[in-house]
Amino acid sequence: MSIVKIIIAGPRGRMGSEAVKLVTNTEQFELVAVLDHKFDGMMLSDIEGFQSISSVPVYTDIVKCLETIEADVLIDLTTPEVGMYHAKTALEYNVRPVVGTTGFSKGNLDELQQICEEKKLGCIIAPNFAIGAVLMMKFSQMAAKYFNDVEIIEMHHDQKLDAPSGTAVKTAEMISAVRAAKRQGHPNEKETLPGARGAEFDGMHVHSVRLPGLVAHQQVLFGSDGQTLTIRHDSYNRSSFMSGVKVAVESVMKNPSFVYGLENILE
Ligand code: NAP
């Protein structure tokens, strides 16, 4: 593969800083610029923690960045509003987005898919880059064919902005595609404390836990007469996501279409 020129949005973030390490330590990748809303016009090496990385300019305005810098891929690890704007703008400039930012709406995904189809350009939106988490979702989908009753409990650090997590939503969608619709629990159940039963997706209940000390964890609990099945995945640090980012960048360079979820590109 020839060198893939990459822009990272959100380089100072917990995910973005790991992505900077991944890109600068991967032989066939080149970090050509970063997008950061605070350090416009500086070099990445001027920012604390990145002193050893030379020749990477910082832009605040993505349009200015894409007018100046030639790139193949934009990795976005920011916030949903910014991430959507970045992804759309990147596509306009024929740069393929690889988006780890979570919280995109169905409308956002449909819009990006349409632009990709018009432009015949690749784009990957991956709510979870951890390969173990993708397997957890796939195994949950398998189990859902045999277990109709399921509750999803996702647990994250207390700085996470969106709830439920993108992974929980994606898991619920994958389960929903194979599970016979069912409203779970007692038909007359009543919440004496609002929210006690969590959010509802197609009759399934989704619970979000936020605590300092956690990173990203999820368990999917299935129950039927006399048995339960628990499928659980834990990410203990953000480097757990980076092998998935690498796979996504390699894939988006080869496949000129819209992909939602890493499970669709894993063999
Ligand atoms: P974080 O530490 O808060 O990082 C977000 C970064 O985005 C911050 O450095 C923030 O800068 C920056 N930012 C905000 N607005 C920006 C803009 N307009 N331009 C450029 N940068 C901007 O969050 P995180 O934990 O890294 O997570 C980032 C995103 O990835 C979230 O949506 C999270 O849910 C998601 N995530 C995805 C995965 C996955 O596997 N797909 C895994 C973990 C997290 P300031 O701090 O200065 O505001």
Task: Give a brief rundown of this model.
The chain contains seven helices and twelve strands. The chain is an alpha/beta fold and 267 residues long.
Structural class call reads alpha/beta
Query: What's the quaternary structure here?
Result: single chain
Main pleated-sheet profile: 7 strands, parallel
N- to C-terminal distance: 19 Å
Uncertain spans: none
Secondary-structure element series: EHEEHEHEHEHEHEEEEHE
The helix count comes to 7
Report the mean per-residue pLDDT as an integer: 95
Gyration radius from CA atoms, angstroms:
20 Å
Bound molecules: NADP nicotinamide-adenine-dinucleotide phosphate
In terms of DSSP E residues, the strand content is: 15-25%
Helicity, as a percent range: 25-40%
What is the 3D shape?
A: elongated
* Number of extended strands: 12
Task: Give me the side-by-side strand order of the main sheet.
Answer: 3-2-1-4-5-6-12
Task: Outline the structure in words.
By secondary structure, the chain is an alpha/beta fold. The chain contains seven helices and twelve strands. A hairpin with a 2-residue loop joins strand 8 (199-201) and strand 9. The protein is elongated. NADP nicotinamide-adenine-dinucleotide phosphate binds at residues 9-10, 12-16, 35-38, 77-79, 82, 100-103, 126-130, 160, 216, 241. NADP nicotinamide-adenine-dinucleotide phosphate binds next to helix 1.
